[in-house]
Design brief:
With 97 residues, this protein is mostly helical. It has four helices and no strands. The chain has two domains: 47 residues; 48 residues. Keywords: Coiled coil.
């Protein structure tokens, strides 16, 4: 089961408390009611320049789109393979008759 989801704005503000204001990770995590591990993960993700965030988000969107397209193309390929096998067997039946 997954834990509670927090909006990115909440995570960014939590990261700023550690990176800009100098608070300890454990203190910020306790105050906000999150785990230190989550806060470490947020720091790794959000302690980058804004331009880099946008680039990462765009790359993740592109990856999602490409995965969806790959699923679609794979399904189409599988259908075409099945059709080729079917027509090949039908062709063999009609040449034997």
């Amino acid at each position: 089961m997954r834990g509670k989801r927090y909006p990115d704005e909440f995570k960014i503000e939590a990261v700023k408390q550690v990176t800009e204001r100098g608070y300890q990770i454990a203190d910020v995590a306790d105050r906000l009611g999150v785990t230190s591990k989550s806060l470490h993960n947020w720091i790794n993700k959000f302690d980058k320049p804004e331009k880099q965030h946008i680039t990462i988000d765009n790359q993740q969107d592109e990856i999602r789109k490409l995965k969806a397209e790959l699923r679609r193309v794979t399904e189409e390929r599988n259908i075409l393979k099945e059709a080729a096998v079917y027509f090949a067997s039908e062709s063999k039946k009609s040449t034997r008759s």
